From TrEMBL:
Enzyme Commission number, as recorded: 4.1.1.35
Gene Ontology cellular component annotations, sorted alphabetically: cytoplasm
Protein known as: UDP-glucuronate decarboxylase
Sequence similarity: Belongs to the NAD(P)-dependent epimerase/dehydratase family.
Amino acid sequence: MASAARVDLDGKPIKPLTICMIGAGGFIGSHLCEKLMAETPHKVLALDVYNDKIKHLLEPDTAEWADRIQFHRINIKHDSRLEGLIKMADLTINLAAICTPADYNTRPLDTIYSNFIDALPVVKYCSENGKRLIHFSTCEVYGKTIGSFLPKDSPLRQEPEYYVLKEDSSPCIFGSIEKQRWSYACAKQLIERLIYAEGAENGLEFTIVRPFNWIGPRMDFIPGIDGPSEGVPRVLACFSNNLLRREPLKLVDGGESQRTFIYIKDAIEAVLLMICLHLVLLAYNDDNSSQENPARANGHIFNVGNPNNEVTVRQLAEMMTEVYSKVSGEPTLDVPTVDISSKEFYGVGYDDSDKRIPDMTIINRQLGWNPKTSLWDLLESTLTYQHRTYAEAIKKAIAKPAGTN
Ligand SMILES: NC(=O)c1ccc[n+]([C@@H]2O[C@H](COP(=O)([O-])OP(=O)(O)OC[C@H]3O[C@@H](n4cnc5c(N)ncnc54)[C@H](O)[C@@H]3O)[C@@H](O)[C@H]2O)c1
Ligand SMILES: O=C(O)[C@H]1O[C@H](OP(=O)(O)OP(=O)(O)OC[C@H]2O[C@@H](n3ccc(=O)[nH]c3=O)[C@H](O)[C@@H]2O)[C@H](O)[C@@H](O)[C@@H]1O
C-alpha cells in the first residue's frame, strides 16, 4: 500500500485536522484510530471509558504518532469536559453506543439512553459551535424488508425493490413495542432525524453512517476470556467462541436470517473518504481529477456495506467452521451446528432483521468507494487473528477445574 502523501493537489501541505472521536476505544474506533495514525497527519482526541483496544497506539510514547493521539477517559453521560473537547476539534465522530442485540431487550432503557439521550449533547455542541459531525447510526434503522411481508412463494420477493435498502427511499419498518429488539433501531432513527433537522434548520454540517455488519479483529469479546462469561457478543464473536471451545455453533431460530458482511478494513476506507476525500485519493490513485471535498460527504446518509457478501446465518456458520479448521489445523466437529430458539438465546422481546442488502448508489456517486474483500478472505484473516489471540487462553481456561482462578 502506498503511504499517504501529506500534501494537497497543488503540493501544499494538508492542514491536519483535530478529530474528537467518541467511542474511540471500541471495535470501529480502534481501527479508525489505527488508520488515522498510520496514514494521515490528523490528530485524534480519543474519548471512551475503555482503552484496551487502542493501548497499542497509546504506548509506547515514543511511537511516531505519540503527539497525535490523546486518550481521555470520559463517560459522555456525565462529564463537563465534553463540550471543551468538541470545541477544540474541527470534526467530531460519534461512535459511542450500546450496540449488541443481547442488550436491546434485556437493557432497553440503557439502550435508548445510550443511542438517543446521550448523543443529544454531542449534536447540540457541534451545532452550537459550528463543528462538523460524523455520526454512526446503523443499518437496523431500515428494520424489516417490505418483501418479508409478502407470501413466502410470492415472485415479488425476488424483485430488488422489495428488499434492497436505499437511504433516500426505503421505509423504516419495525416490530411492535413488545418486540424490544427495535428500541435500538428506533433510538438511532430518532437521533438521525434530529441531526438531519439540525442540518436543515441550523446549518449543522453532518454525515450519517449506516454500517451493515462490519466485522474483523477486535470485534466485541470472547466470553470468559476478555469479557463476562455469561455475556453474549455479536455473531462473529459468538461463533468464534464456539469454534475456539470446540462447541457446536448456535443457530438462532434456524439461522435463516440473511446478512451482508463487510471487512472492517474496507469500511474504514469509506470513513476516511468522508473525513477527507482528498488524502485517500492521493494515497491510492494517480488520478488527480478529484478535489479535496468534505462537502461531498456533508448532508448525506451513507450505507456502508458489501452487497456481494450475502449469506444466511447458517451459511456463515458453515463457512466459519470450514475456515477455522483451515487456519487452526483442527478437524471440524461431527455436528458443527445446533438450532436454538431466539427466546432461549436472547430472551423474550427478540425479533430480527430478515435481510440486509445495502444500495450503493449514493456512496458510489459521492465518494467513489467500493468494498473489495470477499467473505471467505475476510473470515480467513479474522479467524487467523482469533486463533492467534485466544486459542492458548481458551485451552488454559478449559484445563482449569471449575471454581479456581
Ligand atoms: N460494528 C458494526 O458493524 C456496527 C453496525 C451498525 C452500527 N454500528 C454503530 O457503530 C458504532 C460503533 O460500533 P462498534 O461496533 O465499534 O461498537 P463498540 O461497542 O465496540 O464501540 C462502542 C464504544 O463506545 C464506548 N461508549 C459507549 N458508551 C459510552 C459513553 N457513555 N461514554 C464514552 N464511551 C462510550 C464503548 O466503551 C465502546 O468502546 C455504534 O454507534 C454502533 O451502533 C456498528
Ligand atoms: O452489525 C450491524 O450492522 C448491526 O447489526 C447488529 O445486529 P445483528 O446483525 O442482528 O447482530 P448479530 O449479533 O451480529 O447477529 C446476526 C444474526 O446472527 C444470529 N446469531 C447470533 C449469534 C449466535 O450465536 N447465533 C446466531 O444465530 C442473530 O440472531 C442474527 O440473526 C447489531 O444490532 C449492531 O451492532 C449493528 O447495528
